[in-house]
Specification:
The chain is an alpha/beta fold. The chain has ten helices and 16 strands. Helices cover about 25% and strands about 25% of the residues. About 40% of the residues are buried.
């Protein structure tokens, strides 16, 4: 199963909106076939593994990181392929909650195939944390990327932020972008920095993430990089804004509003409906703070550079003041890594 999970990771940048899945076919310790899901619409991991195994799949055990599908979507059911190949046992890491209960498993059981589940379940769910978030919570897994100085600042008072971190950290960000279904920013960042939010991974295969811009009044000016049509782009706005000719190269959609801006919960629900699993946020302190304060941030991807920016520099996030230390936001460290001279922390809310 550990090997099947490593295979599944090879689809980290390419399976969107499908989950990343790996499969190993074995007789005891003898592996006779292996495969992983590469792209939506193409064969699933089980099919690749069965093709590699050929007749040796008969009487074997299939180790698969996610419950085999029992529904006919863009590809035939993998449960049927396992039955036809003569597999006698299926060991799966995690159930697939996007299927009707027993959709695939019951077909396997009816064919006399033994079923075991739960082996390395936590690792399998972590690999597809966005997929499970979308299916089970109706919203993407939200990851906010931040870069700060040792004194907790993200930019100078005039907005200058290039570059707080070094090249190794900036290259690392590209891989987190690549594994995401969409990259979200706000109009303030779009107007101030004119970002491209595109990938710089060389020839590494990946599905280009959807660029999403929250622009309540559609203030973005003609000529902005985010309006150039170089990548799929979705502009989300309020009811009073009317898209004009300068938005011809991108898709615009209206979302509900609150007193303070666009309804962030509605935004996440809309993106889930579009198949967004992992949402990567690169925005300013106002939007990042609003998402965090609303309990909509699942992970902070925080890069800390060994520099100081001073008192007038911009803060990490705009959060409401606290009058009691007991109400402080507590985070758990999910991972840490040194990149050049910078430190990357993955932080998750404790509750």
């Amino acid at each position: 199963m550990s090997h099947a999970l490593r295979l599944a990771e090879r689809g980290l940048f390419t399976t969107q909106p499908n989950p990343r899945v790996g499969c190993v076919i074995a007789h005891g310790e003898d592996v006779v076939g292996e495969g992983f899901h590469e792209r939506a619409g193409e064969p699933h991991a089980e099919v690749h593994a069965l093709r590699a195994a050929g007749e040796r799949a008969r009487g074997a055990t299939a180790y698969v990181t996610l419950e085999p599908c029992g529904l006919h979507g863009r590809t035939p059911p993998c449960a049927d392929a396992l039955i036809e190949a003569g597999v006698v046992r299926v060991v799966m890491a995690s159930e697939d909650t996007s299927q009707a209960v027993g959709a695939g498993l019951q077909r396997l059981r009816d064919a006399g195939i033994g079923i075991a589940s739960g082996l390395m379940r936590d690792a399998a769910r972590e690999l597809n944390i966005g997929f499970f978030s979308r299916i089970e919570r109706g919203r993407p897994f939200v990851r906010v990327k931040l870069a700060m100085s040792l004194d907790g600042r993200t930019a100078l008072a005039d907005g200058t932020s290039k570059w707080i971190t070094g090249e190794a950290a900036r290259n690392d960000v590209q891989r987190w972008r690549a594994r995401s279904s969409a990259i979200l920013t706000g109009s303030g960042t779009a107007l101030a920095d004119d970002p491209r939010l595109t990938m710089r991974l060389g020839d590494v295969p990946h599905v280009p993430p959807l660029r999403v811009v929250l622009d309540r009044y559609l203030r973005l000016a003609e000529g902005a990089h985010l309006l150039d049509g170089s990548a799929p782009t979705l502009m989300l706005h309020g009811s009073s804004a009317k898209p004009g000719v300068r938005f011809a190269a991108v898709e615009c959609a209206e979302v509900p509003e609150t007193d303070t801006g666009l309804d962030l919960g509605a935004v996440l629900g809309m993106l889930a409906g579009r198949g967004v699993n992992e949402l990567h946020v690169e925005a300013g302190p106002t939007l990042c703070g609003a998402l965090f304060a609303a309990g909509l941030v699942d992970e902070l991807l925080l890069y800390v550079a060994p520099v100081l920016l001073g008192d007038r520099a911009r803060p990490l996030m705009a959060l409401p003041p606290l009058d009691d230390m007991a109400r402080r936001w507590q985070l758990a460290v999910a991972g840490r890594r040194t990149l050049g001279e910078d430190l990357r922390l993955r932080l998750r809310p404790r509750s």
